[in-house]
Amino acid sequence: VKKLINAPKDAVDEALKGALLAHERLIMALPDTPRAIVAKDGPRAGKVGIVIGGGAGHEPSFWGYVGRGLADAAAVGNLFASPPPGPILAATQFADRGAGVLYIYGNFSGDVMNFDMAAELAAEEQIAVRSIITTDDIASSPVESRAARRGVAGNVFIFKIAGAAADRMMPLDTCESVVRRANARTYTMGLALEPGSPPETRRPSFDLGPDEIEIGVGVHGELGVVRQKLISADESADLLLDRILAEMHPSEGDQVAVLVNSLGSTPAMELYIILRRVRQRLKARGIGVHSCLVGPYYTSLDMAGVSLSLLHLDPELAALLEAPCRSAALTLP
Amino acid sequence: VKKLINAPKDAVDEALKGALLAHERLIMALPDTPRAIVAKDGPRAGKVGIVIGGGAGHEPSFWGYVGRGLADAAAVGNLFASPPPGPILAATQFADRGAGVLYIYGNFSGDVMNFDMAAELAAEEQIAVRSIITTDDIASSPVESRAARRGVAGNVFIFKIAGAAADRMMPLDTCESVVRRANARTYTMGLALEPGSPPETRRPSFDLGPDEIEIGVGVHGELGVVRQKLISADESADLLLDRILAEMHPSEGDQVAVLVNSLGSTPAMELYIILRRVRQRLKARGIGVHSCLVGPYYTSLDMAGVSLSLLHLDPELAALLEAPCRSAALTLP
Amino acid sequence: MTQLDAQQVVFLFRVIARRLADARVELGALDGAIGDADHGTAMADGFAMVVQSGAEAAARGTAAGDLFAVAARAFLNAVGATSGPLYASAFMRAGQRFAGQTTIAAEELPAIIGDFAEGIADRGKARPGDKTMMDVWAPAARAASLAAEGPLARLDRAVVAAEGGRDATRAMAASVGRAARLAERSLGHVDPGAASAAIIIAALRDGLAPHLSGGHN
Amino acid sequence: MTQLDAQQVVFLFRVIARRLADARVELGALDGAIGDADHGTAMADGFAMVVQSGAEAAARGTAAGDLFAVAARAFLNAVGATSGPLYASAFMRAGQRFAGQTTIAAEELPAIIGDFAEGIADRGKARPGDKTMMDVWAPAARAASLAAEGPLARLDRAVVAAEGGRDATRAMAASVGRAARLAERSLGHVDPGAASAAIIIAALRDGLAPHLSGGHN
Ligand SMILES: Nc1ncnc2c1ncn2[C@@H]1O[C@H](COP(=O)(O)OP(=O)(O)O)[C@@H](O)[C@H]1O
Ligand SMILES: Nc1ncnc2c1ncn2[C@@H]1O[C@H](COP(=O)(O)OP(=O)(O)O)[C@@H](O)[C@H]1O
Ligand SMILES: [Mg+2]
Ligand SMILES: [Mg+2]
Ligand SMILES: [Mg+2]
Ligand SMILES: [Mg+2]
Q1: Please, which chains are in contact with D (at least 3 CB pairs closer than 8 A)?
Q2: Which residues form the DhaL domain (chains C, D) (predicted)?
Q3: What pLDDT does D149 receive?
Q4: CA dist B294 to A76, B82, B307, Å?
């Protein structure tokens, strides 16, 4: 697979440098901690600090969601690898403005252990830290073991809710509980047409036949739950949506927010065809759509495929979702 | 090539329907003219109307640049095919609020003829129409025949300047001359790692060897000017930037805006590696960077590759570029 | 003197449409080499819409001579490529000749080659040698206008001239249209618009031949 | 009784690092089958950083016993995968045993297998049968702790136990870590973390053997 890179081992750092330059009005790296990316505007005395993070390869996540009304800081690891406690702690120290800090990150054991270690170190410095481990990927574990699920593209909604809650100066307890509710009400499922290829190998991270798709993939090249023949866009949308609705069981008149996410190389035309079907189906079920995001919001290198995320809103979550924010990947006026 | 589509012939209409649903707060189709997409907010008495357009397959262009502070309407054709005069005329009638209408579209003979026919029809209705045919693609013709060049991703800058000028209630003459200047000062060049595949054929629109790239490609599957071995990201960036700077010949201290555009399937990581190099090089030349756009702003289906656009700013263009706007693809607070 | 009614004019369009549909892939490939690969789609879909709208209009009782204006609109709306407005202008021009006629004399129809050439030239401003469809339409129009011969013979000559014009584009470097950006790289390739023009002219001849069995005037 | 100085401890790390570097692709493939394909990179790069930081620290005069804490930090910063904090905790635990010692008796070093097992268990909370590296570290630690034998024999037993534990993971369904999402789909695959753990234990044995030539106590 051809790639526009230099030395493969430099890809993550060079892309991050590019992002810091491209968005220099919004974000910067902490001096001496290049993997701790912080917001230039937003953090302020008395506001709960929001710290997010995870591996590289999901661009524009995580730095793309750092800014006013969103996260205060992000710790970024190597390709698909958790950041170590060092940058997480530095991000925490920056984000702490006396009201405590909320960690939000996907449920992967590497991330859990590293964020936990950082939280232990922060506790030694008397910084109050709460951790929300996101678990929106419904394909990754049955509903009975929801806590074992991966955290994937639904993070975008959860980050947004958290950023807005903190921006409204809600105290740590309130932020924590509203974000926990957002996580519990966010459902994601993805499918891949082609695996992504890491810069090191430039080879697909798994093999798919010329007519096959993989349902339920993760965002690190993990296999999904089942492999099948390529189906149409409408069938693909139905497959993802049916699984999500079966868990969410919304009532008529409920509101949802929708994210149709490119896993990397799927272009806008295909995403919007999917979105159209999702909207048709939701309308038929009498479910209102508060807002839609369509695009490469949470990627897995150059994987071809799509994930669908729905956030089951309630009035408070809806208000937080539409609150203004300004970041590299998401700006609401 | 696998695609998330239904019947190939429906892909353009279905994607457009998805876009209208996803961005229903911002845009809508004119009743009875589904290919004329208009802004819900922005058009108003005495404001020059901005009408843009071209073929489908460049999503989020063109509907993505319709909104307050940007275009008032867009006419969208079939895949890589100009809209006929009908929707252009309807867009023109909608956008005309007594101050005349500016057409802005890329220099392709199909578009020129269709927009000209629409302008003739508009003239019969006493609507003052001026046409700016964009010509930013420096690979498509030598500098001596600049007027023969294609209009490609640099359109994003030109649309933005036009939208801001009209939003400031500048009269038609002034809008026309400032947008003409923006076009004259915008330079784009692209390269492809893999061709895109139209939904109808699902086959690459041209053949490239496993180690080859095509330099100077257009955005409709047109071949470029030369084919060569895959080179590194830095070399690719240098190749594009050198050609652009050789024509622009900026002075030290000049300001530019930069767009690193994905042609469809190239993911953010690679775009930001390119951006980083461009920024290094500009810094070394003493050229200031006003702002950067990085992402799939003007695509060519699922082509893998990148285009680089530079807008050589002057103070007025810089002010217009940073004016607020709100659209599906570009929002500045 | 054979007169064609609206149904028969639509049938003539259908003959052309079928040939273009058969050539869809080949025209697409020619355009792929020096353009954007859509010329097969443009011509096949454009003429399919001409047939469909023509048939609907004929069923509504539209006069034979007014079908050309119907065809122009249909082609324009179906085809956004350069060939859209060019053939729309071509049909429009031919429509001016026959406007209002309920039937058209078969002998009169070869003249539309000249109308097409003029309509395309006016809209596109290309000239022979630019490597476009004009390299076919211009010599074919000249051949079709030789008054000394009967209509079928003129059509035969037009077909030969069209083929010659088409083949000549292979040695030209494009200076108009999308392929102009390739400059010398377009050398060695037949122009797709020239190829489809030659198909139209041959189909016109074959579609009219049964009505012109009289041969030379 | 052979005493290892800081340089020699770094050399021991180097033996392990080399084996893991050789196994990089193979470990990546094991992880590709049931995880995210990065375990080869994680272990090879992690131990490479352990060697580099250890060598720098030794050159600065750091005591042999303090190199384990250095290794812990290096591993943690180099590896963001699950194995990062796990091996960092392992090194940390071993470091508590030797803290401050300028040299370490070769006979004492097999005990780090038990330290590693404890550090990993504390941090990861996995238990034997979960299809993780604990399926290697736990039985190896038991084997290495049999007081009745000499250190080399205990290491030999640990190697055998490690290999058995590794092979046993093939028949397990993962219930911890990334592979747990595959559930039954992980059956039939060797756990990558178990495979790398077996490599480390074998390398440790081979690296210590020259210092333990005395054999049975
Ligand atoms: N100005 C012009 N006048 C006449 N014919 C032209 C002109 N420009 C292009 N053409 C013809 O149009 C053909 C391409 O048509 P088509 O592929 O349908 O349009 P597009 O280039 O817009 O995709 C060319 O092969 C050429 O013959
Ligand atoms: N909680 C745990 N305790 C012990 N070992 C674990 C645990 N979770 C995962 N592992 C081990 O980690 C290995 C995967 O390591 P690695 O690939 O480096 O991390 P990641 O899964 O984060 O990519 C697994 O094969 C398993 O042996
Ligand atoms: Mg074409
Ligand atoms: Mg075209
Ligand atoms: Mg792994
Ligand atoms: Mg990993």
Answers
A1: A
A2: 7-206
A3: 82
A4: 20, 26, 10
Burial of C189 (0-12, 13-18, 19+ CB in 10 A): buried
Contact check, Cβ <8 Å, D85/A81: no
Name every chain B residue with its beta carbon within 8 A of the beta carbon of C38: 79-81, 220
- Rg, Å, chain B Cα set: 19
Tokens of C96: 């001016």
B299 vs A: CB within 8 A: yes
Going by C-alpha positions, the residue among C50, C43, C58 that lies closest to residue C14 is C50
B193 CB within 8 Å of a chain A CB: yes
- Active-site annotation holds for A23: no
A93 CA distance to ligand 6 centroid (A)? 26
State the Cα–Cα distance between residues D182 and A31, nearest whole angstrom: 41
Tens digit of each residue's pLDDT (9 = 90 or more) over C136-190 = 999 999 999 987 789 999 999 999 999 999 999 999 988 877 777 777 778 899 9
CATH 1.25.40.340 fits C3-210, yes or no: yes
D163-to-A65, A302, C170 alpha-carbon distances in Å: 45, 37, 71
**What pLDDT band is residue C216 in, cutting at 50, 70 and 90?**
very low
Instruction: Judge whether D54 is closer than 8 Å to chain A, CB to CB.
Output: no
How far apart (Å, rounded) are the C-alpha atoms in residues A324 and B179?
Answer: 31
Q: Which atom of ligand 1 is nearest to the CA of C80?
A: 22
Q: Which chain B residues are closer than 8 Å to A22 by Cβ?
A: 260, 272, 275, 279, 292, 294
Nearest protein Cα to ligand 2, atom 16: D39
Separation CA B30–CA D132 (nearest Å): 60
Amino acid at A69: G
- Is A312 noted as a catalytic residue in this protein? no
D3-212 classified as CATH 3.40.50.720? no
SS3 content of chain B, % helix, strand, coil (to 5): 35, 30, 35
In A, which residues are within 8 Å of D34 by CB distance? 223
Cα(A32)–Cα(C126) distance, rounded to whole angstroms?
Answer: 64
For residue A77, the distance in angstroms to the closest alpha carbon of chain D comes to 6
Angle at A81 between CA A76 and CA A86, to 5 degrees: 50
Structure-token pair, residue D101:
């010692």
Count Cα atoms within 13 angstroms, Cβ side, for B162: 34
Strand partners, B295: B261
How far is it, in rounded angstroms, from Cα B246 to Cα B231?
21
Closest CA to D94 of D74, D78, D72: D72
Catalytically annotated residue among A23, A58, A290, A312: A58
Low-confidence ranges of chain D (pLDDT < 70): 214-217
Do chains D and C have 3 or more beta-carbon pairs under 8 angstroms?
no
Phi, psi of C47 (to 5 degrees): -70, -30
Domain spans of chain C, in order of start: 3-210
In whole angstroms, what is the distance from residue C188 CA to residue A92 CA? Answer: 65
What does the pLDDT read at residue C175?
A: 81
Nearest to D110 by CA among D77, D78, D68, D157: D157
What string of H, E and C letters represents the secondary structure of A269-288? HHHHHHHHHHHHHHHHCCCE
Q: Which domains does chain B have, with CATH numbers?
A: 12-185 (3.40.50.10440), 186-313 (3.30.1180.20)
The pLDDT tens digits for B192-207 are: 999 999 998 899 988 9
Q: What residues of B are labeled active site?
A: 58, 220
* Residues of D with Cβ-Cβ distance to A225 under 8 angstroms: 185
Q: Counting beta carbons within 10 angstroms of the beta carbon of residue C142, is it exposed (0 to 12), middle (13 to 18) or buried (19 or more)? A: middle
For residue A96, CA distances in Å to A43, A190, A283, A296 come to 8, 35, 43, 30
For A140, name the nearest residue in chain D, comparing CA atoms only.
D181
Q: Which residue has the higher pLDDT, C78 or B161?
A: B161
